[in-house]
Amino acid sequence: MGGLARGRRPLLVLALVVLLLAIPWLLPQRYFLRVVDLGLVYAVLALGLQLLVGSAGQLSLGHAAFYGTGAYTSAILARKLGVPVEAAFLAGAVVAALLALTLVPVLRLRGNELAVATLGFGVIVHAVILNEEWLTEGPFGMMKIPPFRLGLLVFDTEFRFYYLGLAVTAATYLAFRRLTRSRFGRALEAIRQSEEAAVTSGINPVRYKSKVFVIAAFTAGLAGGLFAHLNRYLNPNDFTLTESINILVMVVVGGLRSLEGAIVGAMIIIFASEYLRAFKEYRLILFGALLVVFMALGAEGLRGLPAKLAAAARRPAPEPSDG
Amino acid sequence: MILDPLIGGIAMGCIYSLIALGYNMLIRAMNLLHFAQGEVMMVGALAGVTLVSVLHIPYLAAIPLIMALCAALSLGLDTFAYRPVRRRNVPVINLIIATLGVSILLSNAAILIWGAEPIRYPRIYGSDALLLGPVRIPPQFLAPLVVGGLLMVGLQIFFARSLTGVAMRAAAQDPEAARLMGIDIDRMIRYTFAISGAMGGAAGALLGPIIFASFNMGEVIGIKAFVAATLGGLGSMPGAMVGGILFGVIETFGALFISSGYKDALGYAVMIAILLVAPSGLFGRRARA
User: Fold this and answer.
1) Where are the domains of chain B?
2) B114 in helix, strand or coil?
3) In this predicted model, what pLDDT tens digit does every residue of A87-115 receive, in sequence order?
4) Would you call A272 an interface residue with chain B, using a CB distance cutoff of 8 Å?
5) Portion 280-299 of A in contact with B at CB < 8 A
6) ipTM metric
7) Tens-digit pLDDT profile for residues A119-152
C-alpha cells in the first residue's frame, strides 16, 4: 500500500472523517441521502461477507438469509411485541448468529458444494418468511415498523439515519480490521490458501470457519435491523437469492480481501443500480455487461485498477498478445 | 394412482437432467459453475415459440434447430464474455460472477425481444394419453421422456465411443497430459460449451409447452437443475442424469404431501441432507480444487 508518507496519514484520516460527517450537510438532497443510507446498510452486509468469502475463502450464496432473519426479528420484536428498538436490533443480530450456528454441520463442505448448500439454505429461509404469515405477514410484507431509537435520539429521517448507518459501518470496519490483523485473521488466511496445510499447522478449519460464519451472520443481522428501521417496511422479496448474489457482487467488485473495497463496492453497486434507472429497460442489460467487464479486473477488483492503468501507461506500446 | 405423479416427476426430471448435464460438463471440464445455463434454456424455450408459432415449423423439427441455436449462443458467450475474463487468470469466483452477469444480461435482453409476459406455446399435443398397460403417459410428458431419454443415451455413447468424446473427457480429467497427447484443450472447451448449450436448448424446447415460456423461467428452473446436479454429484455425467430424475420425482411427490408454499424448499432440504451424508453427491468424485 506504500506511497504515503507516514506522518501525513493521521491528517488524511482526519480529513476523511470530517468529510464523512459533513456529507449530509454538503449534499442534503433527500433522494441522494436515501441512496447513501441504503449504501451504508449494504456496506455492513458486504463487510461481513468479505470476512467469509475474501478472508476465509468460503463461498456463500445464502447471505440474504441472515440479513432477512435480522430484519424480520428486529421488526417483529419492535412492532408486535413493543420491545425497545435498540434491544430488538441487537436481538435480530443474535438470532441471525444462532441460525448460523445450526448451519455448522454444513461447513464441512467446500467450494462449489458449500456454495450450493448455502444457496439452498437461503431458499428455505425465504420460504419460511414467505409462508409463516402469522409471524411475518407473508407476501404482503410487514408495514409500520417503528424508526430506530437510541434513548432520546430518533433516527427517522434520511439525514438522521445517515449518522446511525455511518456509526455501525465504522464500528464494523474497525472491529474487522483488528480481527483480520490478529492471529484469528492469519488462521483464516491459512485456511483459504490450503485447508490441509492449515491442519498441519494445528489449525482446526471447521472451528475457525464456524466462528467466521457466525460473525458474518451476526453482521448481516445488524444490517437487517438497520434496513428494517430505515425502510420501515419489509417484503420477503427483499431477501431472495438475487439479494445474496448482489452482496457477493459488491465484495468482488470492491476487491476480494479488502475491507475498504467491500464498502466502496457496496456504494458503487447501490449507486449503479439507482442511477442506471435512467437507461430504463436497458438498465439490467448494461448492469450484466458491466459485471462481466468488472470481473476481468481480477481478485483486486477496482482497487487494482489504478496500478494496472499506471503499468499500462509506463509501457510504451502494448505487447502483441500471443493468443 | 401412484404412477401418474411418478411419470410426471420423471418427465420433469428428464428436463432437469438435460440442464444438469450442461452444468456438470462445464464443471468437469473447467470447474466452472455456469449460472447462465438456465438462461440458455430460457432462450431455447422462447426461440421455440417463435419457430413454431411465427415460422410454422413443426415442433419436432424445431427441436434440433433450437439446439443448434443454443449451441451457437453458448459458444458465443464463451468467446465474447468468459474467455476474455479467463485469459486474465482471475480467481474462480470472478468467473462465477461473470456468468451471473451474463444471466442478468440474457434474461433482460429476452424481455426486449419477447416481452415480459409469459407466452403460451401453440397446441402441440392431442389430449389422449398413451396407455402402456397400467401406465398412463399424458401427451405433454411423452416428448421429454422420449427426446430427453434419447439425447442422454446419445451423449453417453458420444463420450464413451467417439474420438472427440474421449478427447474431451481426457482434456477434462488431466489437461496437461491431454495437451502432451496432442489434444487441443481450447477446442475441447469450445465443444463443451457448444454441447452444454445444445442440451440447454433441448430442455427449453421440451419445457416450453409444459409451463409457459417466459424471460424469468431460467432462474427458477436453472437453480432447480443445479440442485439436481449437486444431488447427483457436481461434475459427474451419470450424476446429472440420476440427480435430475430424482429431483423431479422428489419435487412432484413433495407437492402431494407438503403444503405448496414449501414445495420448492423441500428439494433443497433433501439436497442439504444428502450433501451432509455424501459431501460430493451421489455419484461425485471430489471436484478438483
Assistant:
1) 8-120+137-277
2) helix
3) 999 999 999 999 999 988 888 888 778 88
4) no
5) 281-285, 287-292, 295-299
6) 0.85
7) 999 999 999 999 999 999 999 999 999 999 888 8
Mean pLDDT for chain B overall: 90
Q: Does B258 touch chain A (CB under 8 A)?
A: no
pLDDT digits (tens, 9 = 90+) for B179-222: 999 999 999 999 999 999 999 999 999 999 998 999 999 988 99
What one-letter code names the amino acid at B70?
C
Q: In this structure, what C-alpha cell is assigned to residue B113?
A: 425481444
- Domain extent listing, chain A: 33-240
Residue of B nearest to A109 (CA): B279
**B8-120+137-277 CATH pick, 2.60.40.10, 1.10.3470.10, 3.30.365.10, 3.50.30.10:** 1.10.3470.10
Task: Give the Cα separation of A213 and A227 in Å (integer).
Answer: 21
B10 three-state secondary structure = helix
Window B:181-240, CB contacts with A under 8 Å: 223, 226-227, 230, 234
B93, A256: Cβ pair inside 8 Å? Answer: yes
Q: Outline where DSSP puts E strands in chain A.
A: 148-150, 153-155
Which residue blocks in chain B are alpha helix, DSSP H?
Answer: 3-30, 37-49, 59-77, 83-86, 92-114, 139-161, 163-173, 175-180, 185-207, 217-232, 237-257, 263-277
Q: Is the dihedral of CA B90, B91, B94, B96 positive or negative?
A: positive
A252 to chain B, any CB pair closer than 8 A? The answer is yes
Separation CA B27–CA B21 (nearest Å): 10
CB A17 within 8 A of CB A143: no
C-alpha cell recorded at residue B255: 407437492
A297 to chain B: which residues are within 8 Å by CB? 88, 90, 94
**Coil, strand or helix at A68:** helix
Residues of B in contact with A120 (CB under 8 A): 227, 268-269, 271-272
Question: Any residues with CB less than 8 A from the CB of B22 and at least 6 apart, and which?
Answer: B34, B37, B40, B195, B196, B197, B199, B200
